[in-house]
Amino acid sequence: MNLNHSELANRPQGTIAQMLDASRSSCPGMEPASQLRKARILVVEDHDFLREGIVRLLNMQSDLVCCGQAATLAAAVGGVIQQSPELLLLDIRLPDGDGLQLIDFVRPLYPNLMILVLSQSDEVSVARHALAMGANGYVIKQQASEVLSAIRELLRGKTYVSKELANRMAGLIPERHSLQGA
Asked: How crowded is residue 52: how many other Cβ atoms within 10 Å of its Cβ?
């Protein structure tokens, strides 16, 4: 659509705004900035079914995108280096090593990388250790419904711990003790 300046000046403002909106929708490079900017997340999880579900969930969000995925510690190291994610969603039990080793490796090299641990372990000591190593958050897989909230909290610069675990860490709920020899 070719219009000169006098034609634009004589059009009502609403019409110009509508033309701009129409041109944005027809030109993919002209989306509003809020639609262009998605937080990049690398998913590290060895269980294919869970990893694929998380990737799908992330990619359905308007503000998040999965920039890569890994099932092993080695692939995760490569993913962090190659993909430059803003957030690392990390299982701590991987077939070729401990996810805590990855935290120890990436934290000094990528101090701004947010790290959210997603673990089967609901032990306070494990969560405290992960946070002490440099994780920014810890979600128990049994409370995976908290993952999106946790990701968004971390991206806002906050720490997140699964609610039940946080209450136990604060002493509001007594710590569970495993039965030895049972």
From this structure: 13
pLDDT of 125 over the 80 cut: yes
Write 125-130 long-range contacts (CB < 8 A, 24+): 126/92, 127/161, 127/165, 127/169, 128/169, 129/100, 130/92, 130/100, 130/103
Provide the residue type at 167 as one letter: N
Q: Quick count: other Cβ atoms within 10 Å of Cβ 5?
A: 7
DSSP states along 20-82: HHHHHHH-GGG--HHHH--EEEEEE-S-HHHHHHHHHHHHTSSSEEEEEEESSHHHHHHHHHH
Same-domain check for residues 25 and 47: no
**Residue matched to tokens 């675990």:** 165
Q: Given this model, what pLDDT does residue 169 score?
A: 87
Q: What is the pTM of this model?
A: 0.75
* Segment 45-98, tens digit of pLDDT: 999 999 999 999 999 999 999 999 999 999 999 999 999 999 999 999 999 999
Residues 44 and 109 in one domain: yes
Together in a domain, 59 and 118: yes
Q: What are the backbone dihedrals phi and psi of residue 93, each rounded to the nearest 5 degrees, phi first?
A: -110, 105
